[in-house]
Amino acid sequence: MVVIEDIGEANRCIRELAALSLLPAIWGEGQPEQIRDSLADALQNSLRPDLVYVRGKDGKVSETMNAAFRSKEIRLGNGAVENLRDIVERNLGDGGSDLVECSFQGVSMRLAVIPLGVSHEFGVLAVGSQRTDFPNAVERLLLNVSVNQAIIAFRSAKQLTSLKRSESNLRDFFENATIGLHWVDASGTIIWANQTELTMLGYSREEYIGHSITEFHADGCVIQDILSRLGGGESLHDYEARLRCKDGSVLLVLIDSNVLFEKGEFIHTRCFTRDISERKRAEQALSEASEHRRLALEAAALGSWDYRFDLGTIFWDERCRNMWGLSEGSKLDFESVIDRLHREDRDRTKDAVEAALRGVDDGMYQVEFRVVRPDDSVRWVSSKGQVYFNERNGREPLRFIGTTRDVTEEKGAQEALREAQAELRRHAETLEQQVTERTSQLRETIQELEAFSYSVSHDMRSPLRAMQGYSDALLEEYKDRIDEKGVDYLKRIRRSASKMDVLIQDVLAYSRVAKGDIHLNEVNVENVIRDVIQNYPLLQPDRTDISVISPIPRILGHESYLTQIVSNLLSNAVKFVEPGKRPSVIIQSIAEGEMVRISFEDNGIGISLEHQQQIFQIFGRVYSEKKFEGTGIGLAIVKKATERMGGRSGVESQGGSGSKFFVILKRAH
């Protein structure tokens, strides 16, 4: 025991001890460097030694030194320079000695060396003084107290660092766990949530924490049930719910939750939220795929079989057994299966199976055979399979799985198809002969029609022209000898002959359009319209208003056919107008994809809906010849010429309010 005899020293010792007792509070949150520096400063201020030297476990040093020693150096015989710190380090060793005597340029110094902790856990302390009685009893007591306080500080700092690290790890674990976490108080307000849950739903902390949990549930009845059951002390496990995300989507989750109660008071929930949207989608996809497979097997009427060589078992499903006429539980082995096959198919089927078991075609198996069932009915079966091998044991067969399908109806259909094809070939040969004969007849008919057309255009028109000529001669030379009634008859004969001639010309024009060869070229529609207007007196500006709205695209067509179309449509537009009304026509176009619609809109008498198809037929007149002259062939020529150029024609009209005739033809590129 240390005895302190001097009262002054005792008082100072008490003051120093009181000061040192504050070290843990001062150093409690310090780092090892801060504790070493504080220890060196405290001992320098308390003991006022010439040197305080603290070396940490990591080799780092904190020191205080009398200014007189800082500049002193000694050069050794080998040329090296040594200072007090070097001397202290050399004498310090591992701190195993309690007191060390050392000298430095003629100055003697006593070093009190004390380890900091068991086995120098936190380093070593050296305090030096030139006094020969250093350290005295008070100083030794102060050294021991300060070292103990420093060790407490070191250990407190170490524990605090470890605690902070654990706290940080625990916080990171909760914040970034793989599932969402949140607390809700008794009122349903969210008081805490981890980052995973915020990220999962897309909210910031301000948008989520402090809000009612009911705002984020898509189904109000669900969250009310959750809160009610938790408030009653119940724990929830795998409770399915739907949460609203910030982007408006809905997340399907499973909730595990219970409540922290303290003395019966609801503190907060402990809720774990797992996103199962992807799992649900995967389950749905798997369910649909399984259903599709089942439906596919049902639709294909497939049976399945499985030979397990490694287990020595054979499995056939019900459909497969039915194909062989086998009941459930009946004997099933390879030989009994082969025995059920048609005699002509057994060897071929056995060869296919053995080839697959040897690994031919990588164990693929496919064969068709006939099965003779117990009732002697015969069914055709198509079988496919795959052999799986133990590659580590010389490709030993392990498993042989596959499917079977009853193809009896297909075989029957194929046979029926072959018979039908043979019958069709016979019919085709007969039809080909008939076509050849009828083609020959058609050629003869066409030649006769062409001869008839020639006769009509020449032989039949000649008498008509003669009738017109003789009628004119009679009217001119014998007008005075013929009474008024005879003159009227002659004029009627002349008009009838003229009408007949026009009719013959229109029929010939229709015939040429219907049967003539046609080659489509690029045609300038506006030029055709301009030429028609210039060549027809009734279409001149002093008699008719015709407006052409440009541009009208060029078409891929036949110029003479287009000329007939334009002349017939314009002639009709001028002809079918109420007496005393000035004809007006607007010609314009509109593109319709690869086609162009060219319309001719007039201010005529119009056409009722029930007659709009009739007028495009040959001789399809609507009005009597007495009211409006014509042969009834013009629009039939328009329709036929348009069709020959790959287009179509039509009319839009309400009776009495004008008509809009149109043709739709291919655009030129």
The structural class is: alpha+beta
What is the approximate shape?
A: elongated
Query: What is the β-strand count?
Result: 24
CATH superfamily of the largest domain: GAF domain
Please explain how this structure is put together.
- The structure is a single chain.
- The protein starts with 6 loop residues before the first helix and ends with a strand.
- About 1% of the residues have low confidence.
- The protein is 45% helix and 25% strand.
- The strands form 6 sheets. It has a 5-stranded antiparallel beta sheet with strand order 2-1-7-6-5, sandwiched between helices. The protein has a 5-stranded antiparallel beta sheet with strand order 9-8-12-11-10. A 5-stranded antiparallel beta sheet has the order 14-13-17-16-15, sandwiched between helices.
- Helix 3 runs antiparallel to helix 6, helix 15 packs parallel to helix 18 and helix 16 packs across helix 17.
- It has 5 domains: 160 residues, 2-Layer Sandwich (Beta-Lactamase); 106 residues, 2-Layer Sandwich (Beta-Lactamase); 114 residues, Beta-Lactamase (2-Layer Sandwich); 106 residues, Helix Hairpins (Orthogonal Bundle), CATH 1.10.287; 150 residues, Heat Shock Protein 90.
- A hairpin with an 8-residue loop joins strand 6 and strand 7.
- The protein is an alpha+beta fold and 669 residues long.
- The longest helix is centred in the middle third of the chain and has 70 residues.
